[in-house]
Amino acid sequence: MAKATTPSDLTITPRDVRFGRGQALKRYWLNDDPIATAFYNALSVTFPKGEAYFVESVKAFREGTPPKLHGEINAFVKQEVIHSREHVAFNRHVVDQGYDIRLLERHVEDVLALTKGRPPIGNLAATMALEHFTAILAHALLADPRHLAGGDPQAAGLWRWHAAEEIEHKGVAYDTWLHATRDWTRWKRWKIKSLLMLIVTWRFFDGRRRGILELLRQDGLTGPAVWAKIVWYAFGSPGMVRKVAGAWFSYFLPGFHPWKHDDRALIALAESEYEDALLPGARKLAAA
Description:
Layout: H1 34-59, H2 67-96, H3 102-113, H4 120-143, H5 153-168, H6 172-180, H7 186-218, H8 224-235, H9 240-249, H10 265-274, H11 282-287
Helix pairs in contact: 1-2, 1-3, 1-4, 1-7, 2-5, 2-6, 3-7, 4-5, 4-6, 4-7, 4-9, 5-10
Protein backbone atom coordinates (compact mmCIF):
# COMPACT_ATOMS: atom_id res chain seq x y z
CA MET A 1 0.00 0.00 0.00
CA ALA A 2 1.28 3.49 -0.86
CA LYS A 3 2.35 5.60 2.08
CA ALA A 4 -0.11 8.38 2.92
CA THR A 5 1.26 11.89 2.38
CA THR A 6 -0.02 15.42 2.06
CA PRO A 7 -1.88 15.73 -1.29
CA SER A 8 0.35 17.19 -3.98
CA ASP A 9 -2.44 19.48 -5.17
CA LEU A 10 -3.22 20.88 -1.72
CA THR A 11 -3.08 24.67 -1.45
CA ILE A 12 -2.96 26.28 1.98
CA THR A 13 -4.65 29.66 1.71
CA PRO A 14 -4.59 32.22 4.54
CA ARG A 15 -8.05 33.86 4.51
CA ASP A 16 -7.77 37.30 6.06
CA VAL A 17 -11.31 37.72 7.38
CA ARG A 18 -12.80 39.39 10.43
CA PHE A 19 -15.77 38.34 12.52
CA GLY A 20 -17.98 40.15 14.99
CA ARG A 21 -16.47 43.61 14.82
CA GLY A 22 -18.72 46.40 15.99
CA GLN A 23 -21.48 44.22 17.37
CA ALA A 24 -22.31 42.69 20.72
CA LEU A 25 -22.25 38.97 21.37
CA LYS A 26 -24.86 37.77 23.83
CA ARG A 27 -23.73 35.86 26.91
CA TYR A 28 -25.01 32.45 25.80
CA TRP A 29 -24.27 32.89 22.12
CA LEU A 30 -24.62 29.20 21.21
CA ASN A 31 -28.28 28.24 21.19
CA ASP A 32 -28.84 29.93 24.59
CA ASP A 33 -26.95 27.00 26.12
CA PRO A 34 -24.46 27.87 28.90
CA ILE A 35 -22.72 24.47 28.64
CA ALA A 36 -22.16 24.69 24.88
CA THR A 37 -21.12 28.33 25.12
CA ALA A 38 -18.62 27.58 27.91
CA PHE A 39 -17.16 24.71 25.85
CA TYR A 40 -16.20 27.03 22.97
CA ASN A 41 -15.36 30.05 25.12
CA ALA A 42 -12.89 28.02 27.19
CA LEU A 43 -11.30 26.62 24.05
CA SER A 44 -11.00 30.05 22.45
CA VAL A 45 -9.07 31.43 25.43
CA THR A 46 -6.27 28.94 24.70
CA PHE A 47 -5.75 29.95 21.08
CA PRO A 48 -3.83 33.26 21.08
CA LYS A 49 -0.92 31.98 23.20
CA GLY A 50 -1.27 28.38 22.05
CA GLU A 51 -1.07 29.19 18.37
CA ALA A 52 1.93 31.47 18.94
CA TYR A 53 3.60 28.40 20.47
CA PHE A 54 2.66 26.29 17.42
CA VAL A 55 4.15 28.88 15.08
CA GLU A 56 7.47 29.08 16.92
CA SER A 57 7.71 25.30 17.25
CA VAL A 58 7.30 24.73 13.51
CA LYS A 59 9.38 27.74 12.43
CA ALA A 60 12.31 26.34 14.44
CA PHE A 61 12.63 23.60 11.78
CA ARG A 62 11.71 25.56 8.65
CA GLU A 63 15.28 26.12 7.48
CA GLY A 64 16.41 23.45 5.02
CA THR A 65 12.97 21.99 4.34
CA PRO A 66 12.00 21.11 0.75
CA PRO A 67 10.50 24.05 -1.19
CA LYS A 68 6.92 22.76 -1.06
CA LEU A 69 7.03 22.17 2.69
CA HIS A 70 8.80 25.51 3.21
CA GLY A 71 5.93 27.27 1.44
CA GLU A 72 3.36 25.31 3.44
CA ILE A 73 5.05 26.31 6.70
CA ASN A 74 4.91 29.97 5.66
CA ALA A 75 1.19 29.65 4.84
CA PHE A 76 0.60 27.79 8.12
CA VAL A 77 2.26 30.63 10.03
CA LYS A 78 0.07 33.24 8.30
CA GLN A 79 -3.09 31.26 9.02
CA GLU A 80 -2.21 30.81 12.68
CA VAL A 81 -1.40 34.51 13.13
CA ILE A 82 -4.81 35.47 11.73
CA HIS A 83 -6.49 32.82 13.92
CA SER A 84 -4.86 34.37 16.98
CA ARG A 85 -6.07 37.84 16.00
CA GLU A 86 -9.64 36.67 15.56
CA HIS A 87 -9.70 34.77 18.83
CA VAL A 88 -8.29 37.78 20.67
CA ALA A 89 -11.31 39.69 19.32
CA PHE A 90 -13.67 36.83 20.23
CA ASN A 91 -12.22 36.64 23.73
CA ARG A 92 -12.90 40.36 24.15
CA HIS A 93 -16.57 39.58 23.52
CA VAL A 94 -16.38 36.92 26.24
CA VAL A 95 -14.93 39.45 28.69
CA ASP A 96 -17.55 42.01 27.64
CA GLN A 97 -20.20 39.57 28.82
CA GLY A 98 -18.79 39.79 32.33
CA TYR A 99 -16.51 36.76 32.37
CA ASP A 100 -13.11 36.94 34.04
CA ILE A 101 -10.81 34.79 31.90
CA ARG A 102 -7.57 35.59 33.70
CA LEU A 103 -7.50 32.26 35.51
CA LEU A 104 -7.91 30.41 32.20
CA GLU A 105 -5.16 32.48 30.58
CA ARG A 106 -2.86 31.85 33.53
CA HIS A 107 -3.35 28.11 33.20
CA VAL A 108 -2.34 28.28 29.51
CA GLU A 109 0.74 30.30 30.48
CA ASP A 110 1.65 27.77 33.19
CA VAL A 111 1.43 24.86 30.74
CA LEU A 112 3.49 26.69 28.12
CA ALA A 113 6.06 27.58 30.78
CA LEU A 114 6.76 23.85 31.15
CA THR A 115 8.09 23.85 27.58
CA LYS A 116 10.70 26.54 28.21
CA GLY A 117 14.21 25.21 27.85
CA ARG A 118 13.01 21.89 26.43
CA PRO A 119 14.53 20.53 23.20
CA PRO A 120 12.89 22.15 20.16
CA ILE A 121 12.07 18.70 18.75
CA GLY A 122 9.92 18.06 21.83
CA ASN A 123 8.00 21.28 21.22
CA LEU A 124 7.48 20.24 17.61
CA ALA A 125 6.17 16.84 18.73
CA ALA A 126 3.75 18.53 21.16
CA THR A 127 2.60 20.91 18.43
CA MET A 128 2.12 18.00 16.05
CA ALA A 129 -0.07 16.24 18.61
CA LEU A 130 -2.13 19.36 19.28
CA GLU A 131 -2.51 20.01 15.57
CA HIS A 132 -3.95 16.51 15.23
CA PHE A 133 -6.36 17.38 18.04
CA THR A 134 -7.48 20.58 16.36
CA ALA A 135 -7.86 18.84 13.01
CA ILE A 136 -10.07 16.04 14.30
CA LEU A 137 -12.16 18.48 16.35
CA ALA A 138 -12.47 20.65 13.24
CA HIS A 139 -13.62 17.66 11.21
CA ALA A 140 -16.27 16.78 13.80
CA LEU A 141 -17.42 20.39 14.01
CA LEU A 142 -17.93 20.74 10.25
CA ALA A 143 -19.27 17.25 9.62
CA ASP A 144 -22.18 17.65 12.04
CA PRO A 145 -24.14 20.93 11.82
CA ARG A 146 -25.67 20.29 15.24
CA HIS A 147 -22.51 21.57 16.92
CA LEU A 148 -23.14 25.18 15.94
CA ALA A 149 -26.91 25.02 15.35
CA GLY A 150 -28.65 28.06 16.76
CA GLY A 151 -25.38 29.91 17.29
CA ASP A 152 -24.75 33.59 16.72
CA PRO A 153 -23.96 33.87 12.98
CA GLN A 154 -20.71 35.78 13.49
CA ALA A 155 -19.44 33.45 16.22
CA ALA A 156 -20.47 30.33 14.31
CA GLY A 157 -18.82 31.74 11.19
CA LEU A 158 -15.59 32.26 13.11
CA TRP A 159 -15.53 28.66 14.30
CA ARG A 160 -16.33 27.24 10.84
CA TRP A 161 -13.63 29.37 9.22
CA HIS A 162 -11.09 28.34 11.84
CA ALA A 163 -12.04 24.67 11.48
CA ALA A 164 -11.68 24.80 7.70
CA GLU A 165 -8.14 26.16 7.94
CA GLU A 166 -7.19 23.65 10.63
CA ILE A 167 -8.15 20.87 8.24
CA GLU A 168 -6.30 22.55 5.40
CA HIS A 169 -2.98 22.78 7.24
CA LYS A 170 -3.33 19.62 9.33
CA GLY A 171 -0.30 17.96 7.75
CA VAL A 172 2.22 20.80 8.10
CA ALA A 173 3.51 20.13 11.62
CA TYR A 174 3.56 16.40 10.92
CA ASP A 175 5.50 16.77 7.66
CA THR A 176 7.92 19.12 9.42
CA TRP A 177 8.40 16.46 12.09
CA LEU A 178 9.04 13.77 9.49
CA HIS A 179 11.66 15.96 7.85
CA ALA A 180 13.29 16.93 11.15
CA THR A 181 13.47 13.28 12.31
CA ARG A 182 14.36 11.78 8.93
CA ASP A 183 17.52 10.21 10.43
CA TRP A 184 15.66 8.63 13.35
CA THR A 185 14.57 5.03 13.50
CA ARG A 186 10.85 4.35 13.10
CA TRP A 187 10.74 3.06 16.67
CA LYS A 188 12.28 6.22 18.15
CA ARG A 189 9.97 8.43 16.11
CA TRP A 190 6.88 6.45 17.15
CA LYS A 191 7.94 6.34 20.82
CA ILE A 192 8.49 10.10 21.13
CA LYS A 193 5.40 11.15 19.20
CA SER A 194 3.21 8.69 21.13
CA LEU A 195 4.53 9.77 24.51
CA LEU A 196 3.96 13.42 23.68
CA MET A 197 0.43 12.68 22.47
CA LEU A 198 -0.42 11.01 25.78
CA ILE A 199 0.97 13.96 27.76
CA VAL A 200 -0.77 16.47 25.50
CA THR A 201 -4.07 14.60 25.73
CA TRP A 202 -4.05 14.66 29.52
CA ARG A 203 -3.15 18.35 29.68
CA PHE A 204 -5.63 19.28 26.95
CA PHE A 205 -8.62 17.67 28.64
CA ASP A 206 -7.59 18.75 32.12
CA GLY A 207 -7.19 22.34 30.96
CA ARG A 208 -10.50 22.45 29.08
CA ARG A 209 -12.29 20.85 32.03
CA ARG A 210 -10.93 23.50 34.36
CA GLY A 211 -11.80 26.29 31.94
CA ILE A 212 -15.38 25.15 31.36
CA LEU A 213 -16.02 24.68 35.08
CA GLU A 214 -14.59 28.11 35.89
CA LEU A 215 -16.76 29.90 33.33
CA LEU A 216 -19.85 28.03 34.50
CA ARG A 217 -18.98 28.82 38.12
CA GLN A 218 -19.08 32.49 37.17
CA ASP A 219 -22.60 31.83 35.87
CA GLY A 220 -23.54 30.32 39.22
CA LEU A 221 -23.69 26.83 37.69
CA THR A 222 -21.89 24.27 39.85
CA GLY A 223 -22.34 20.82 41.32
CA PRO A 224 -22.92 17.24 40.13
CA ALA A 225 -25.91 18.07 37.92
CA VAL A 226 -23.81 20.56 35.95
CA TRP A 227 -20.92 18.10 35.72
CA ALA A 228 -23.30 15.48 34.33
CA LYS A 229 -24.50 17.91 31.65
CA ILE A 230 -20.90 18.63 30.64
CA VAL A 231 -20.16 14.92 30.31
CA TRP A 232 -23.33 14.40 28.29
CA TYR A 233 -22.49 17.33 26.01
CA ALA A 234 -18.98 15.96 25.37
CA PHE A 235 -19.79 12.24 25.11
CA GLY A 236 -23.52 12.05 24.48
CA SER A 237 -25.15 14.71 22.33
CA PRO A 238 -23.72 16.25 20.25
CA GLY A 239 -20.81 14.21 21.65
CA MET A 240 -17.79 15.74 19.95
CA VAL A 241 -15.29 13.99 22.25
CA ARG A 242 -16.90 10.61 21.60
CA LYS A 243 -16.84 11.22 17.85
CA VAL A 244 -13.13 12.04 17.68
CA ALA A 245 -12.01 9.05 19.78
CA GLY A 246 -11.30 6.81 16.80
CA ALA A 247 -9.39 9.52 14.92
CA TRP A 248 -7.37 10.23 18.07
CA PHE A 249 -6.42 6.56 18.37
CA SER A 250 -5.33 6.41 14.72
CA TYR A 251 -2.39 8.64 15.64
CA PHE A 252 -0.69 5.64 17.24
CA LEU A 253 -1.12 3.26 14.29
CA PRO A 254 1.76 2.34 11.94
CA GLY A 255 1.74 4.41 8.77
CA PHE A 256 -0.32 7.22 10.29
CA HIS A 257 -0.45 10.51 8.44
CA PRO A 258 -3.02 13.29 8.94
CA TRP A 259 -3.92 13.15 5.25
CA LYS A 260 -4.64 9.44 5.30
CA HIS A 261 -8.19 10.75 5.60
CA ASP A 262 -8.75 13.38 2.91
CA ASP A 263 -11.59 15.55 4.20
CA ARG A 264 -11.04 18.62 2.05
CA ALA A 265 -14.72 18.54 1.02
CA LEU A 266 -15.53 19.93 4.46
CA ILE A 267 -13.48 23.05 3.69
CA ALA A 268 -15.75 24.01 0.80
CA LEU A 269 -18.79 23.27 2.95
CA ALA A 270 -17.50 25.52 5.73
CA GLU A 271 -16.72 28.37 3.34
CA SER A 272 -20.24 28.32 1.95
CA GLU A 273 -21.62 28.64 5.49
CA TYR A 274 -19.26 31.12 7.14
CA GLU A 275 -19.45 33.44 4.12
CA ASP A 276 -22.91 34.52 5.26
CA ALA A 277 -21.45 35.68 8.59
CA LEU A 278 -18.78 37.94 7.12
CA LEU A 279 -18.99 41.67 7.60
CA PRO A 280 -19.47 43.88 4.50
CA GLY A 281 -16.25 43.96 2.51
CA ALA A 282 -14.83 40.85 4.14
CA ARG A 283 -15.92 38.63 1.23
CA LYS A 284 -13.47 40.54 -0.92
CA LEU A 285 -10.69 39.74 1.57
CA ALA A 286 -11.69 36.10 1.74
CA ALA A 287 -11.49 35.77 -2.02
CA ALA A 288 -8.11 37.50 -2.28
